[in-house]
Amino acid sequence: MLPDAPELLSLFGIGVVLTLLVGFYSVLTSQNLIRTLIGMEVLTKGVTLLIIVVGYVVGQIALAQALAITLIIIEVAVIVVAVGIVLCVHKHTNSIDTRDLGNLKG
Amino acid sequence: MAGTDTMDTMLDILLVWLLVGAAMATVMTPRILWSVIGLAVTSAVLTILMFRFDSPLAAVFELSVCAGLIPAIFISTISLTQRLSPEGMAERRREKWRRFGLLPVLVILVGVALMQVHIPLDFVAPPAAKETDVRNVLWHVRHIDLVGQIAILLGGAWGVVVLLKERKRAA
After folding, report:
1. A6-98 sits in which CATH class?
2. Element of type H or E holding B139
3. Which residue of chain B is at minimal alpha-carbon distance from A32?
């Protein structure tokens, strides 16, 4: 059980911000498509922790859990479709490097 | 009791830093397989935090789906793509340090800066009815979300079928 000290809750706020920072940095600098998806996953971890922390602080932890579960399900669907796209890219270009995606049709 | 509180606080601080450290290791490691394992560890640490925040149902979802299913999907994808040559791997390692060398410095600087400022987390709940049972919230308050979840899962499954469908060869 966590104490209600604002200092401790602000610690989790710092954790959320740093996790989001790591995720954003990874998404922006990675040139491997799988690593970009992993960066997105790290970003989602930060968002999930934020939802749970805020739900705990405002006393609506049940609502926060429902939103976190919804987020996890959306996350899985997004990752599965994105992985399918990555495999299609690999089939066509024999690479999963974003620098090899310069010749897209359309 | 005071000793228990101190232990709890120490554990919370440890878990938060472990979460950030695991996330950094996930994005910084040169081998992509280790990166996926790091992602599973990050999810496991987040699960412990969720349990500590009285969210056991969401924690179980996080552990089974994010620490179990998603790494399995990533590992399957990695196994379907081609392996790098030793020269390519060495080049990747050098490139990785060049691009991600700034990240630890950035995380430390932002962390120290955030410790200096007070993040206001003392806001109050909106005057909506407070529901304490997550099942009631899912089935009665947020039931539209469930429809959305079903639609997203079906859309995801359909998307994968369309993307990975083998085209018929011309006779």
Report:
1. mainly alpha
2. none
3. B32
Cβ pair A99, A36 in contact under 8 A: no
Residue A103 has pLDDT above 90, yes or no: no
**More confidently predicted of A46 and A102:** A46
Q: Tell me if residue A32 falls in helix, strand or coil.
A: strand
DSSP bridge pairs for B127: none
Q: Would you state the structure tokens that stand for residue A64, as one six-digit string?
A: 């926060």
What are the extents of the domains in chain A? 6-98
B19-40: average pLDDT: 93
Beta bridge partners of A97: A32
- How many Å apart are CA B120 and CA A14, to the nearest integer? 11
Residue B38 to residue B117: CA distance in whole angstroms: 30
Distance CA B22, CA B28 (A): 10
Q: Answer yes or no: is pLDDT of B4 > 70.
A: no
- Three-state SS for A97? strand
Dump pLDDT digits (tens) for A11-36.
Answer: 888 899 999 999 999 999 988 899 99
Angle at A75 between CA B143 and CA A99, to 5 degrees: 150
pLDDT at B1: 42
- Determine the distance in angstroms separating the CA of A87 from the nearest CA of chain B, rounded to an integer: 7
Chain B hits for A77, CB-CB cut-off 8 Å, are: 152-153, 155-156
* ipTM entry: 0.89
Residue B49: closest C-alpha in chain A: A49
**Are the C-beta atoms of residues B11 and B26 closer than 8 Å to each other?**
no
Amino acid at A6: P
Could you state, in order of their start, the residue ranges of all structural domains in chain B? Answer: 2-118, 133-166
pLDDT for B138: 77
